[in-house]
Amino acid sequence: MELLLSNGGKVTDTDQHGVTPLGIAAEYSHAEVLEVLIKHGADVNAQAPNGDSVLYDATGSGNPDCVNILLEHGANPNMHNLSFQLPIHKAAYEGHYLALRTLMPLTTRRALRLAGQSPVHSAADGGHAHCLELLLQSGYDVNALLAPHVSENYGDMRQSPLYFAVSNGDRTCTELLLNSGAQPDLDPLSCLLVAVRSGRYEIVKLLLEAKADVNCYFTAVTDTVFPTALLYWLNQGLDAKKCFCCSHDDICL
């Protein structure tokens, strides 16, 4: 590496994807190469065309040495990519506990607000209970909601961390979130409905124990009030009268 750089190699060159040598070294967890490139003037805050920063790539590799080297040389942990993801989101989603712990005190509330999503969402989506527990114990909101500009990218309009865990069929993360105070009825499409439709009956039981609304229904796609898995819910105390009321007419059958 030193030989290449001393003979005209440029740290500013990019590959076909627009990624700098520093970004590649970060992605593949080459701490020594990072130090050499930085010594020769590589930009620690360079971003690829998709907005991924070098620190974001390093966080994805999970190597705390790479993360620390970049931070020590001025890498900004509050730069989001085009998907509004910050390095802290990457660490939580990939389950990189040490990187997550390093980034938590450095990530600003403003950056998280602009991103429109919490690392709690990311940890729940990635299914990493140890990262989820760290975030919740550190005071991150278990009921944080996705901002509209993020939620609208999902066809089901999901909003809560609990929804990610339930939709993934992740009993461990679902239970952890509920035990930490997650509310089961924050999403347009009920977590209970998702669990019932996917046959995740252990999760259904957890949600019912958390007082999820057994009379929930989904009207965002169709305005006909008719819960899915009606027979199951009837056994759980569903108010069946709603199922025979249709807003397409002014009468109840």
TrEMBL record:
GO terms for cellular component: cytoplasm. Keywords: ANK repeat, Repeat. It comes from the Eukaryota. The keyword Repeat applies. The keyword Translocase does not apply. ANK repeats lie at residues 17-49, 50-82, 115-147, 157-189, 187-215. Pfam families: Ank (PF00023), Ank_2 (PF12796). PANTHER family: ANKYRIN REPEAT AND PROTEIN KINASE DOMAIN-CONTAINING PROTEIN (PTHR24198), ANKYRIN REPEAT AND SOCS BOX CONTAINING 15 (PTHR24198:SF187). This is Uncharacterized protein. It comes from Periophthalmus magnuspinnatus.
